[in-house]
Structure formats: structure tokens, C-alpha cells
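WARN no homologs supplied; continuing
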Amino acid sequence: MMTKTMRRWASGLAAVLFASFAGLNVLAWHHARAMTKFSPGGARTDPPEALTPSRKALVLLGGVNLPRPQTEHDPSSLAPDCRTLKLNGLDKAISLEAWYCDRGRTTPLVVMFHGYGTGKTSLLEEARALLEMGASVMLVDFRGSGGSSESCTTLGVLEAEDVAGVFAHAREQLPHRTIVLFGRSMGAAAIVRAVSQHGVQPDAVILEAVFDTMLNAVRNRFRAMRLPAFPSAELLVFWGGRQGGFNGFRHNVVAYASAVRCPALFLHGRNDVRARIEEARRVFEAVPGEKTMIVFEETGHESFLARHPGGWRAAIRQLLRRLQAGGDGLALTAGDPLRFMGRYSEEKE
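OK structure emitted
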């Protein structure tokens, strides 16, 4: 039988646990807002893996500072004849800015979507390389970035609507017969979601550093800081979704991938701690169509063109050539120095 003293201890413990849980939720709400709502300025918080112990403590208490990504270049920095387009997402209230370089109706158009917390100019070198290969290029700012409207980000959930709106414009208003969608990290997730949820049907997709679920993407940020992810990651995803009007736990790129029927080229870093290789493999395995995955050794969540220019160019060039020739599949040359996982037939681990 429980004594009065025991009941008081139990009540006190329950009160402490409730207060701790409530405090953790308040902190998670604040962190979720800081990660999904861009700030008007200030210094951007360092990547989680680069934080010192003292900076980690400050970030845990105060949250990250994520300034709204700005465009520091003009279209001529991509090419002299490049021009700015003003487009809309599926939501016509969302204004999107894109740079468009037209190399002719017979050239494939590669529409490029950036990653989390960046803008279209983060893919400037990749766009230049594609122009050198003879492709036409469109660089897009997601909502909240660069010349586009809003000041928020949703790790690919609402950005999928931006992909769908831009794709519809390209298909209906531009002369290119072949349209390839290129996405990095969040951009890759948004592309796959747009295919699944909004009926987008590109001729091919190029997916760099794709993650599998929003929950794992958030968990990986805690792991990069060498901190336990549970239950903080779950609370961040819950409150981030509540603030953005969606269910973050359902943002599952593996589930979306079953709708990808076009040729798909996956590019991934073996040592990526933001989007782990096993996560990318799950997305890759779920794609039912023709697909190839290239893993860059000793490479993390970074520009593959900058780190492996020869291999990156070779893979992209081969895809574009096959599309232009009307060929099927993405067969790769055995002599390339990279390790391939096309249908997992060329690599055993």
C-alpha cells in the first residue's frame, strides 16, 4: 500500500517529468521554427559537424540562425544570353525566379533545383558544366530563396509544388522535347515527391545526395553533432509539420520513388552524414524503372563536380547522349574509375 510520503514523491516526480516534457516541446517548437523560417539576416550557423562544444550548447539553447538565401550574381554570370524568368508553383500565390539559358529546341533542358538553405547559385558550376555539354539549363530558386517569394522551407514537401509548377511551364511554354530534372538533397526529394504526388513526368531525373525521410534527415543533424536524436528529432518533425501545415512523418521519399518510371541517375557520397548511403539505397531500390547509382568514394554532402569533376561529367554526359539518341537505359562504361551500383550488379559489399 502506498504511503503519503510515497504518493508525494510520485506526484513530485510526475510534475517534474511533465514540466521537462513541456519544456522540451517548447524548445523543439522554437528549433523547428528556426530551421524552417529564414531569418532576415545575421551570420549563418555553422554546419552541425563543425560546431565546437560551446557553440553546440548555444545552438541547443537558442536554435540555428538560417538567413534567407540571397542571389549575389546576375544571369550573365551563368552565360551572356541567360535570362530571368518569373514563374509560379502550383500555388499561384508563390512567385519563383529562374535563370534560363536556351541552346535550341533540339537540346535537352535540364531544370535544376538546389538543396536546403541555399539558392540557385549554389548549382552555378554544375549549370555551366551542363551548358558546356550542349544542354539548355534552367536554374530555379525554391520558395524562400533568392528571387522567389516567401521566407520558409519545408525540406521538399511544399517545394514539390514548385517543381510541378516549373515543370508545367517548361513543358507548355518552352520548345524543348526532352526535360531532365536535376536535384540536390532537398531538391532531389522535392523532384521525387513531385513525380509521385503531382503527376510530373520528366524524361529523366538526376538525384544528388537524396535522403529517404524527413525524420532521418533531421536525425542525421543530431548525429552529426554527436548528440542523441531521440526524442528531439521526432519532436522537431512534429512541430515543423504543424507550423508548415503538413505531416512531416509522411514525407517519405522511398514511398514516392515507386512512381519514378523514367531513367534515374543517382549520385551519392560514400561518407555523407547528412543523407546516409543506406538511405539513398532505399530510395534507389524503390525506383521500378531504369536506374543507375554512382557512389563517390571518400566524399560527403558536397559538390560532386568540385570533388570528382571527371566522373561527374562522364556520368551526366552519358545520360544526356543516350536521351538525345533516343536510347533506353543508363548503361555505364566499365572503365570509369568510380564504383557503380547499377541494379547492384557491379558492387558487392
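The domain at 75-213+251-344 is CATH 3.40.50.1820 (Rossmann fold).
OK
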